[in-house]
Amino acid sequence: MTQALSIRGLRKTYDNGFEALKGIDLEVQQGDFFALLGPNGAGKSTTLGIVSTLVNKTAGSVLVFGHNLDTDSVAAKKSMGVVPQEFNFNQFEQVRDIVVTQAGYYGMSRGEANDSADHYLQALGLWDKRHTTARMLSGGMKRRLMIARALIHNPKLLILDEPTAGVDIELRRSMWEFLQRLNEAGTTIILTTHYLEEAESLCRNIAIIDRGEIRANTSKRELLSQLNRETFVLDLAQPLQQLPRLEGYSIELEGDHTLLVEVDKSQGLNELFAQLQQQDIQVASMRNKTNRLEELFVRLVEKNLES
Amino acid sequence: MRIQDNSIALMTIVSREIRRFLRIWAQTLLPPAITMTLYFIIFGNLIGSRIGEMDGYDYMEFIVPGLIMMSVITNSYGNVVSSFYSAKFQRHVEEIMVSPVPASIILIGYVLGGVARGLGVGLIVTLLSLFFTDLQVHNLFVVVAVVFLTAVLFALGGFINAIFANSFDDVAIVPTFVLTPLTYLGGVFYSIQLLPEFWQGVSMANPILYMVNTFRYGILGVSDIDLSFAFGIILVFIVALYSFALHLLKTGKGIRH
């Protein structure tokens, strides 16, 4: 099966000498929901910038559904829609005009463009704002407008750079549902995000990039299985005056009602609770200190910094 | 199929450009109408009545073709430079860069948008001039051809200016310090026959002189220069600027990092 995206030996050195990408390889299968994660300045946006032809590469090749961006850019560009991190539409145009104009760039007739615009504006909750000037929209609406614009020509691959940045929780959830439905309908989705909960909830495969190099590129399940230690937060029913002794566990008291316990994957939780029971410590509730992917991400990036 | 896609994309760019300058008509269409009306009143009526004739015509009749051409030049240039630089500044140029529209179609679309505004303002100024003088057309083909080609040439110039511009100051520098002096010294207000021989020679290096005089020939039937040479100069400039602008666009100068 042709891959949705195939990147080989991609390098980018900016005019100021900064080497943003050091020859990365990346492959995304058709139908995948893929996350490209990394700290600020890791090379995520440069990678997506090259794929969307907004950044000139220094070396390497990019194929979108088998179409080489250098030699068959028309077919490659028609296959994808791009939602950038920054707002990049004319703030003085009306919402519907922005979307319909974009359809024209893809050769869609006026009738097709109008139908597609109406469909996506309704699907993304912008129908009531279709005649509003873009600068009057809220931040969340502006993000949804960019998604509608990217989808107007029904691309097979949707690329989103930080799609939910600055969006409130409720709206973020509704955008997740929209993207999940889109993916289930067959659209391949690649996103970068700072919300690792977002990547863990939505994506099947994940690549972690740091300082221009791919550190990990595998399925979410495989990646999470590498996480051999997790930190749990135990909220206690009664206050503790001193740190209890829990054999085999690294623990920390936060205030007098909260216990932080680091648990090795091989240990499990039964033994922990047995020891707590013996010492008559009642646990009111328990949660992960951070999201699992976040914990793994931090460890991978920290390891890279140390090396 | 590809031709159809490209023609839809071209029409999309042109109609968006026309929508833009019509939406801000108070900044794009009204000011040249007011300025040119003042020129007609002050230079044509008040001062012109004391000047008498120029090249055998009333001074008002003499300056009207030049003023129409001046409007076409400044507006076709101004439309493209401000529109494309705004697109860069607001980053919505990225909308078109990620799409499959070829660089040549992007360039032609912006240029035709500039031509539309240049011709629109030229028409408004022409209609206003009818309040001050009887305008006769000596050769319609020459009038239409030179106005269109001049608008194309300066729209291309505006596009190149926008590509190199890094700030709104850069957008204003060329029109203020290059275009305006060349237009004023390009025979809009006088015949170069009035100048000493040396300055006549210097004036011949001003490309705007050829456009103004060719247009004046189309209206009045008099010109300081040879028409075929003038058309040749304009076409050479168009080919050179088009090739340069297309090269800049394809390499992503000022747009891609």
From TrEMBL, chain A:
<dbReference type="InterPro" id="IPR050763">
    <property type="entry name" value="ABC_transporter_ATP-binding"/>
</dbReference>
<keyword id="KW-0067">ATP-binding</keyword>
<feature type="domain" description="ABC transporter">
    <location>
        <begin position="5"/>
        <end position="236"/>
    </location>
</feature>
<dbReference type="GO" id="GO:0016887">
    <property type="term" value="F:ATP hydrolysis activity"/>
</dbReference>
<dbReference type="InterPro" id="IPR003439">
    <property type="entry name" value="ABC_transporter-like_ATP-bd"/>
</dbReference>
<protein>
    <submittedName>
        <fullName>ABC transporter ATP-binding protein</fullName>
    </submittedName>
</protein>
<dbReference type="Pfam" id="PF00005">
    <property type="entry name" value="ABC_tran"/>
</dbReference>
<dbReference type="InterPro" id="IPR027417">
    <property type="entry name" value="P-loop_NTPase"/>
</dbReference>
<keyword id="KW-0547">Nucleotide-binding</keyword>
<keyword id="KW-0175">Coiled coil</keyword>
<keyword id="KW-0813">Transport</keyword>
<dbReference type="InterPro" id="IPR003593">
    <property type="entry name" value="AAA+_ATPase"/>
</dbReference>
<dbReference type="InterPro" id="IPR017871">
    <property type="entry name" value="ABC_transporter-like_CS"/>
</dbReference>
<dbReference type="GO" id="GO:0005524">
    <property type="term" value="F:ATP binding"/>
</dbReference>
<feature type="coiled-coil region">
    <location>
        <begin position="269"/>
        <end position="296"/>
    </location>
</feature>
Automatic annotation (TrEMBL), chain B:
<feature type="transmembrane region" description="Helical">
    <location>
        <begin position="171"/>
        <end position="192"/>
    </location>
</feature>
<dbReference type="InterPro" id="IPR052522">
    <property type="entry name" value="ABC-2_transport_permease"/>
</dbReference>
<keyword id="KW-0813">Transport</keyword>
<feature type="transmembrane region" description="Helical">
    <location>
        <begin position="21"/>
        <end position="42"/>
    </location>
</feature>
<feature type="transmembrane region" description="Helical">
    <location>
        <begin position="62"/>
        <end position="85"/>
    </location>
</feature>
<dbReference type="InterPro" id="IPR000412">
    <property type="entry name" value="ABC_2_transport"/>
</dbReference>
<feature type="transmembrane region" description="Helical">
    <location>
        <begin position="227"/>
        <end position="249"/>
    </location>
</feature>
<dbReference type="GO" id="GO:0043190">
    <property type="term" value="C:ATP-binding cassette (ABC) transporter complex"/>
</dbReference>
<comment type="similarity">
    <text>Belongs to the ABC-2 integral membrane protein family.</text>
</comment>
<keyword id="KW-0812">Transmembrane</keyword>
<feature type="transmembrane region" description="Helical">
    <location>
        <begin position="140"/>
        <end position="164"/>
    </location>
</feature>
<dbReference type="InterPro" id="IPR013525">
    <property type="entry name" value="ABC2_TM"/>
</dbReference>
<feature type="domain" description="ABC transmembrane type-2">
    <location>
        <begin position="23"/>
        <end position="252"/>
    </location>
</feature>
<dbReference type="InterPro" id="IPR047817">
    <property type="entry name" value="ABC2_TM_bact-type"/>
</dbReference>
<dbReference type="Pfam" id="PF01061">
    <property type="entry name" value="ABC2_membrane"/>
</dbReference>
<keyword id="KW-1133">Transmembrane helix</keyword>
<dbReference type="GO" id="GO:0140359">
    <property type="term" value="F:ABC-type transporter activity"/>
</dbReference>
<keyword id="KW-1003">Cell membrane</keyword>
<protein>
    <recommendedName>
        <fullName>Transport permease protein</fullName>
    </recommendedName>
</protein>
<keyword id="KW-0472">Membrane</keyword>
<feature type="transmembrane region" description="Helical">
    <location>
        <begin position="105"/>
        <end position="128"/>
    </location>
</feature>
